Fold this protein.
Amino acid sequence: MSDDSGDASTQTAEASLADLQKKSVDVIIGPSSSVLAQRLLSAAERARIPMISPSATYPQLTTLDTGNIFFRTIPSTAQQGVALGTLLPSKK
């Protein structure tokens, strides 16, 4: 099954989440942005539908995920910064 998450200027993501909930999906792959993930997180949490996002990098999503239902396949921007910091040479 698939539905469109749209973009941040529409309510497509919310309509799609409601549609997927009616279809009793086990998991949602998406949404495709941090903004949409943040908007959908509480509704997905109430519905107990895990979301796996390939591109949501907002660090805030980690603390907003009180139901432990949000998973990423990309690190948050905060984690990316730490990783890059360890790779950059330091000036001495």
The chain has four helices and three strands. The longest strand covers residues 51-53. The two ends are 55 Å apart (CA to CA).
